[in-house]
Amino acid sequence: MTPSQTTALPDADAGTAHPAQVGRQMIAILDFGSQYSELIARRVRETQVYSEVLSWRTSIEQLRRLNPRGIILSGGPNSVYEEYAPQCDPEIWQLGVPVLGVCYGMQLMVQQLGGVVERSERAEYGKASLSIDDPTELLTNVEDGSIMWMSHSDSVIRMPEGFEILAHTHNTPAAAIASHDRKLYGVQFHPEVVHSRGGMAMLRNFVYHICGCEPDWTTEAFIEEAIREVRARVGEKRVLLALSGGVDSSTLAFLLHKAIGDNLTCMFIDQGFMRKNEPQRLVKLFNEQFHIPVEYVDASERFISRLDGVSDPELKRKAVGAEFIQVFEQESLRLGPFDYLAQGTLYPDIIESSGENIDPKTGERVAVKIKSHHNVGGLPKNLRFKLVEPLRRLFKDEVRKVGRSLGLPEEIVQRQPFPGPGLAIRVLGEVTPEKLHLVREADFILRQEVNRAGVYNDYWQSFVVLLPVKTVGVMGDQRTYAYTVALRFVTSEDGMTADWARVPYDLLEKISNRIVNEVLGINRVVLDITSKPPGTIEWE
Ligand code: XMP
Q1: Which of 119, 167, 194, 517 is the most buried (most CB within 10 A)?
Q2: Is 219-413 CATH 3.40.50.620?
Q3: Strand pairing class (340-342; 294-298)
Q4: How many CA atoms within 13 Å lie on the side-chain side of 71?
């Protein structure tokens, strides 16, 4: 079914009420394929107003039903004058709802309302200084000369009737425009990106002053509503949750425990690929400190023998995933019966339009976002459980806030991402108990030193990879012939792109010295200085 045929509100069959049904104010983002569409939604939510990303194909009826207080049209890779350029329903201009067009969104507004957009002689990419001609409404509190992030090669040549210019830049005469009476606004820059100073002020002006929203999307309100919904959906039935120790499943456990108490069963399957001491620490924290009972399932023997002779990364992932499902099914029968399965699905997993763009020549949909990996904890759809997914409308940073507010400690809230197959994909090639031991010990040293230096939160991920390479070394008077590890430190916003981190030499030195001195079997440490792309964060 295409989005335009959809009649129900997006969450109707997920057993949760859509925010629009419970009277929450919302800003709808129509996504035209920009890599920043999600970011716009996150920024709007930072103003404590709920917002949602919808496909540009969303019908006008669907929009009416959602009853947004305002609509933002995102940027996109196409040009509005192309034959197959994505278009929104022109009735949008008659809805009487304020609209803000960003980049492509602004050009579309101009074109559909009778103005002209053409390829510009002077494309503008990167930072530009905004000269403000009308410092009211949209641009209230945005400083003249603010730096804004531009990324366009098309420009507005003639504005539609009733529009005026609010701001310009050196290369772009119509950098911000408005039809005040109709509450239609357009900006050629990207207010949502961090480099755009004053971008947040502008979005706040739009959300609060132009759309008239009040800040009602708060962590506390979300928690209250989610608990109410879970109780209404689940009643007295039992719910099973596979805990991984990451922030999503832990937050979910806290939320569900608060909602349904003992009817929640948390299960932690130890595949034997976790970091040193982590399974024990996690189970102890939950059982003794949080008083949320966790069933610990030690399946490490099964997993390691399943990987016997497997060295290809994708086969490893598949083997770990398949074993996980088997163990999960067996254990759920043992502990069950359960009616519901809780999953830590997040909003980026369900955005209908993400990863879709339009080929300007053929009009076909093309996938642009390469969804890297599904967590091996992911379970097949045909399990006999009904799903509970109370975090499905949250972004990761919102999950962290919810977790924190429910009392989750910082060590879990701020935990770096850890792949589902764990250390099994950080031992390159075939996984053996000996190699797992080496990578785990080396990784432990890295973590200790990173924590001692107080820089754990400076990195998106920091870890060790064991290479299938032996090199010659010398220790004392002895020749050694042992394994090499690579240190991987990256910074990233979302794991989709990443840069190698400029780690202080002193820290690298400590880690390297300790690894070769303390981990018998490793005699060389190298540093990975590859960004993503072209590399990936993990080596497998
Ligand atoms: P890559 O290596 O693709 O990783 O740049 C991007 C992010 O995904 C994590 N990752 C995984 N997570 N199962 C997971 O749950 C996997 O198989 C997997 N492989 C990579 C990686 O740690 C990084 O955060």
Answers
A1: 167
A2: yes
A3: unpaired
A4: 30
According to DSSP, the residues that pair with 119 across neighbouring strands are: 154
The residue ranges of every structural domain in the chain are 12-210, 219-413, 426-528
Contact at 8 Å (CB) between 163 and 178?
yes
The class that CATH gives domain 426-528 is: alpha beta
Tell me whether domains 12-210 and 219-413 share a fold: yes
Cα 385 to chain centroid, rounded? 26
CA distance 2 to 185: 29
372 CA to centre of ligand 1 in angstroms: 7
CA dist 426 and 419 (Å) reads: 10
What CATH code would you report for 12-210?
Answer: 3.40.50.880
**pLDDT number for residue 366:** 66
Angle at 45 between CA 44 and CA 46, to 5 degrees: 90
Residues with CB under 6 A from ligand 1: 317, 372-373, 375-376, 417, 419-421, 461, 495, 532, 536-538
pLDDT at 124: 76
Separation CA 284–CA 289 (nearest Å):
7
Taking the C-alpha atoms of residue 422 and residue 443, their distance in angstroms, rounded to an integer, is: 12
User: Which 8-state DSSP code applies to residue 77?
Assistant: S
Which tens digits make up the pLDDT trace of 126-183?
Answer: 889 999 999 999 999 999 999 998 888 899 999 999 999 999 999 899 999 999 999 9
Q: What is the pTM of this model?
A: 0.86
**Residues known to be catalytic:** 103, 190, 192
For residue 499, the cross-strand partners are 491
Give the orientation angle of helix 219-234 with respect to helix 396-405, to 10 degrees.
90
- Can you tell me which atom of ligand 1 is nearest the CA of 532? 5
Ligand 1 centroid distance, CA of 118 (Å) = 41
